[in-house]
Amino acid sequence: MGPRRGLLITAVAAIAVTVVALVLAAAVSAPGKAPVRVEPEATFALPPASAGCTGSSALAGGGAKVPLTVSTVEGQVAESLNVCVDGKGPFPFVLDSGAGQSTIDAGLAHRLHLAPDGGPTEFAGVGCTGTAQPVASGAWSLDGVGLAPQQLTAATLPQIGGKGEPDGLLGSDVLARFGAVRIDFATGTLILPGSEGPPLEGTRPYTGPTGPPPVALTGGRGTTVPLTVTPVPGDISLNVAVRFAGGPRRNFVVDTGSSQSVVSSSIARAQSLAGTNLAQRQATVCSVITVPLVRTGPWSVPGVALHNQLIGETNFGPVSLGGTEGLFGSDQLKRYGWVVLDYTGGRLVLGSP
Description:
Blueprint: H1 5-8, H2 15-29, E1 37-39, E2 57-58, E3 64-67, E4 69-73, E5 76-85, E6 88-95, E7 103-105, H3 106-111, E8 121-125, E9 128-136, E10 140-142, E11 145-147, E12 151-155, E13 168-170, H4 172-175, E14 180-184, E15 189-192, E16 206-207, H5 215-218, E17 223-226, E18 228-230, E19 237-244, E20 250-255, E21 262-264, H6 265-270, E22 275-283, E23 288-295, E24 299-301, E25 304-305, E26 310-314, E27 326-329, H7 330-333, E28 338-342, E29 347-350
Parallel strand pairs: 1-22, 6-13, 7-12, 20-27, 21-26
Antiparallel strand pairs: 2-3, 3-15, 4-5, 5-6, 5-10, 7-13, 8-9, 9-12, 10-11, 14-15, 14-28, 16-18, 17-29, 18-19, 19-20, 19-24, 21-27, 22-23, 23-26, 24-25, 28-29
């Protein structure tokens, strides 16, 4: 949050509200054009609390299998799992590789008496601003898998912390400490290869694949796609090169927290992506906006032709200054049955359904 790109990744500029509103108004009022149909915000299923704080199971070799709730609504896909803090919970968290630092609802952090861990920071979203407070997690766990104490971001976010909503985001700062993880959409599991290790070293981005592949997670199967890893503490990210119809490579964040893939407005125009009369309501870090949907046409990542689909299109604003041109979301990732995010080796492994 604040300067951290992980949470600002969906904090598109305020101007996007005006642009989207004008586009939708014109489409609705223009004679001879079909009116825009705005899909409502999706409500995703959350993991059951019945297992308490011990839902995971040990695997041979020291790994663990963590139950993962995969929810699909109108083509959007979200994954969530249970987190416990100081033995309390479980609390449902979204599995969010696009969050550079894990986040907890401010109200829950207050009820758990999490101690401040630094001064508050300001953040901005679409037509809104807010304040985030770093807090110390203390002892916490992922469905029974112990996690090292660390800093979390406490904030009040749309669709987080309310009744029937998740209580936080489990980000790449945690996932990266396991070196690599497997997200199995088909079986509803997150597979960890071993115990949690130290944070990634260094601050300079690196591009893989490097080192041995995580065979324990892939079983020697799947298709390897190179990733660029940014290991900056509190701002860890995975980026993949996406091409539309053989055009230039575009920098997309691999974002499991994005239930639908999104492309920046400038890239959608440059690639002449076909528009539709559809739009969706989606949450940013501090507001809910209406996002038009466009057709990808043929698109790909290195070595893999992706499934054609509808994706959101919006103005990324300040986020684009860091080079982000889109979000590669769970709607596309789920199509491969399972994926491996390899932080240490800089690779994405796509399975097959």
